[in-house]
Amino acid sequence: MNTLPKIPISVIVPAKNEESNLPACLESLSRADEIFVVDSQSSDRSIEISESYGAQVVQFEFNGSWPKKKNWSLENLPFRNEWVLIVDCDERITEELWAEMAERIEQNECAGYYLNRRIFFLGQWLEHGGKYPDWNLRLFKHKLGRYENLKTENIQNTGDNEVHEHVVIDGPVEYLKEDMLHIDFRDMFQWIARHNRYSNWEAQVYLNTLNGKNDDGTIGGSFFGNAVQRKRFLKRIWVHLPFKPLLRFILVYIIQLGFLDGKAGYIYARLISQYEYQIGVKLFELKNFGGTFNSSQQVAIAKPTPETMIAGVPQPES
After folding, report:
1. Residue 132's CB: how many other CB atoms inside 10 A?
2. How many Cβ atoms from other residues are within 10 Å of residue 102's Cβ?
3. Quick check: 249 and 269 in contact, CB under 8 A?
4. How far apart are CA 318 and CA 316, in angstroms?
5. Quick one: pLDDT at residue 256?
6. Residue 10's beta-bridge partner residues?
7. CB neighbours (10 Å) of residue 176?
8. Which of 1, 92, 266, 269 is deepest in the core (most CB within 10 A)?
9. DSSP 3-state assignment of 105?
10. Are 111 and 128 in contact (CB under 8 A)?
């Protein structure tokens, strides 16, 4: 049991069936003054585990429209602290990071802080391949920050939680030095299933970008901005490029030095290339079939007639 004094930060942990990750996550949050696990009707031991660590469990039911889980939490949870920290179940806050956060919020010089993640994949830290640094605005004054709306909430099979949306905050931000850890105890089946959902989201973001629908109320793209703004700027170019799966592999494994991460780096590059292919296929589906191939709203298939039949086999009409 951690006997160090509590830090006046309220933590939001979005969860659904996370019994494998929650113990390590919640153990790392023992310095927090307040912990909310925002659950989506878990069927495993997530609720029991959360309560055993002293977290308050709040149920969230997604109605299929905005807001999703994190923004709903920011709007509705009864925080007793000014500062809020967003932590996913597969993330860990180190003692060094807690100490830095305590010092910075006491100084109270800005509205929020970016945290850098160390992502572990197949038991290894992915130091290359574009995975580090990985800045996320996670610590901020809860009255000043909300997740952007990228207009993807109505896309099926993306889940009820914000995927890669970023926080838009009203005030100055800074960057913390200590890293948070991303260590997922789930297996590769879960990684692939999760990225199958993510590719639905990404395909809609690609389509919105092509149609110029992601500009209002979001973090815009700028080559001379911060890391998120540069990424958004480059994505506007990326969505127009051909052969994106191949380019993604070359980018991650060669240009961004993913090969230096050994076998894990190679596997990650191959999987992320496959992920890019899935996004492309789903983007094609969205553009041509509205996201769902439904014969009643797409191609009418002509019934065969005697003139188009030879020996009982339907023949294409000229």
Report:
1. 17
2. 16
3. yes
4. 6
5. 98
6. 34, 84
7. 18
8. 269
9. helix
10. no
* Neighbouring residues of 158: CB distance < 8 A, sequence distance ≥ 6: 152, 197, 198, 200, 201
Peptide bond into 133 cis (omega under 30): yes
Element (H, E) at 50: helix 46-52
Q: What is the pTM of this model?
A: 0.85
| Predicted confidence (pLDDT) per residue in 260-306, tens digit | 999 999 999 999 999 999 999 999 999 998 765 443 444 444 445 54
Q: What single-letter amino acid sits at 99?
A: A
> Domain 7-289 is in which class?
alpha beta
Please tell me the distance from the alpha carbon of residue 162 to that of residue 153, in angstroms, as a whole number: 9
Angle between the N-to-C axes of helices 262-289 and 188-210, in degrees from 0 to 180, rounded to the nearest 10: 50
